């Protein structure tokens, strides 16, 4: 990320995407340098906190040290380079060639408009020959690594819409509101907590808006109504954009046999340019696939597939195309985990959740000692779940966790975390009345917890809370600020 405040530490962030498409800060790191061993240590710490579960995808800039560390620590994770940073380098790398503006435009066409691996290879070779770039080392090195930055080689994996580290860049700007190069480590920790609180508040506000307002459908399509009912507002707007784009598509049947049909969809992108996409539809499996891979990479059904479904007069899409990942009804477990910025709120439900986490921690540690104890706990869980489900049915679901409990009024009550006295606190502030009150309250609370749960291990608690997040796509970047850059950005 950047050289952080006055300690010259490298600060980096792990950024993911929530069900509203908002950037979510998952974790932050402070490192002495950007060597391979430092990144290995960082990724191993991440894996420990996540219970050994590696992310499915990891998006970074072209840092060679990160690339090698990821290969060593997370060999099953798909690594992707930020395409925005690569394309941004074209003017500086190729401005010595005649017609470099045309070179930049043609390279962009090859990268973005090659809809198959074979067509990319052909178009790339033609591009090099036409502009006499076959001996350019930068382009040769890029082609050797084309499998980790060219969209057609990566979009069959799910990326939640991320192709660049610009989400990280926007998180950099977000941090600028809280931290400067002159910030101390104590200030960094406090403002980092403020940052988390602000992101959580934005998510809760969006949750509340999803449950108290409705975005009207733009068409009479029953398929659009399916997504309106299921998706968050932000994701439903993306679906609506595809419905609008469907108006520019013309569908033609190429061949059909035994319920399996192949269509060619022509999309008019300008007054004289049509892009063609191959879309297949299996009426038996109720499955539609498009060559553009929008659904596979972003989880949004594309306009070409919608055009084919309309052509076939399909009135409902299969549930497989309505992802829980974007559902407004999803239960976000991390919002029930206690943190310092929501300590003043602690609604009854949050308090109950906190108590259950403390108790289950000891039970799970004890049961994990053997297979027999684990089996006993599993049977107990099954019985308890059956009893709770039965009670929930009797009460018509009023006891279940739901985002309907989140409303704009409660969101607006979120406050910044209290100032906490910690080691390294400036001496001139140690005697303040507020600090003494906080220190006494913290001491009493700590004594109470230790007396009630004397077996609880703080380190394992951190691990337990961290493992609540089950994200699959990470966006990670380090950046060294230019001269005169006085602010910290992720």
Automatic annotation (TrEMBL):
It comes from the Eukaryota. It is found in: Nucleus. Putative transcription activator involved in regulating light control of development. Its main location: nucleus. Residues 397-430 are annotated as: Disordered. This is Protein FAR1-RELATED SEQUENCE. Keywords: Metal-binding, Nucleus, Zinc, Zinc-finger. It comes from Arachis hypogaea (Peanut). Belongs to the FHY3/FAR1 family. Residues 277-313 form the SWIM-type domain. InterPro entries: FHY3/FAR1, MULE_transposase_dom, Znf_PMZ, Znf_SWIM. The lineage of its organism: Eukaryota, Viridiplantae, Streptophyta, Embryophyta, Tracheophyta. One of its GO terms (biological process) is regulation of DNA-templated transcription. GO terms for molecular function: zinc ion binding. PROSITE patterns: ZF_SWIM. GO terms for cellular component: nucleus.
């Amino acid at each position: 990320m950047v050289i952080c405040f006055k300690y010259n530490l490298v600060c980096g962030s792990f950024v993911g995407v929530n069900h509203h498409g908002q950037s979510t800060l998952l974790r932050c790191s402070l490192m002495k340098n950007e060597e391979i061993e430092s990144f290995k240590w960082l990724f191993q710490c991440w894996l420990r906190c996540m219970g050994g579960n590696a992310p499915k995808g990891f998006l970074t800039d072209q840092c060679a040290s990160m690339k090698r560390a990821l290969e060593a620590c997370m060999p099953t994770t798909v690594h992707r380079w930020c395409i925005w940073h690569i394309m941004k380098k074209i003017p500086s790398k190729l401005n010595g060639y005649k017609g470099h503006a045309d070179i930049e435009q043609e390279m962009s066409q090859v990268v973005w408009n090659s809809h198959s691996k074979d067509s990319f290879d052909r178009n790339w070779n033609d591009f090099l020959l036409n502009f006499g770039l076959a001996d350019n080392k930068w382009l040769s090195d890029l082609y050797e690594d084309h499998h980790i930055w060219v969209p057609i080689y990566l979009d069959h994996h799910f990326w939640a819409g991320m192709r660049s580290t610009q989400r990280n860049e926007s998180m950099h700007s977000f941090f600028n509101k809280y931290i400067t190069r002159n910030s101390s480590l104590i200030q960094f920790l406090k403002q980092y907590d403020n940052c988390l609180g602000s992101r959580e508040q934005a998510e809760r506000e969006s949750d509340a808006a999803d449950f108290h307002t409705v975005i009207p459908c733009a068409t009479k399509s029953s398929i659009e109504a399916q997504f309106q009912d299921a998706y968050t507002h932000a994701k439903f707007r993306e679906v609506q954009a595809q419905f609008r784009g469907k108006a520019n598509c013309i569908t033609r049947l190429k061949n059909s046999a035994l319920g399996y049909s192949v269509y060619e969809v022509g999309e008019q992108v300008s007054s004289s340019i049509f892009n063609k996409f191959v879309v297949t539809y299996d009426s038996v499996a109720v499955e539609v696939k498009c060559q553009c891979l929008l659904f596979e990479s972003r989880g949004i059904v594309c306009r070409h597939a919608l055009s084919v479904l309309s052509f076939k007069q399909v009135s409902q899409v299969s549930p497989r195309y309505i992802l829980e990942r974007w559902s407004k009804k999803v239960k976000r477990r991390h919002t029930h985990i206690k943190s310092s910025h929501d300590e003043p709120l602690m609604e009854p439900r949050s308090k109950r959740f906190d108590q259950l986490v403390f108790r289950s921690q000891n039970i799970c540690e004890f049961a994990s000692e053997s297979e027999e104890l684990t089996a006993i706990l599993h049977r107990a869980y099954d019985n308890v779940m059956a009893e709770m489900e039965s009670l929930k049915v009797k009460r018509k679901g009023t006891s279940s966790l739901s985002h309907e409990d989140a409303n704009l009024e409660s969101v607006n009550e979120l406050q910044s975390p209290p100032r906490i006295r910690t080691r390294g606190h400036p001496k001139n502030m140690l005697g303040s009345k507020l600090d003494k009150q906080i220190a006494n309250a913290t001491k009493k609370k700590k004594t109470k917890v230790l007396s009630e749960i004397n077996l609880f291990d703080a380190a394992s608690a951190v691990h337990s809370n961290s493992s609540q997040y089950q994200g699959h796509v990470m966006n990670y970047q380090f950046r060294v600020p230019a001269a005169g850059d006085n602010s910290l950005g992720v």
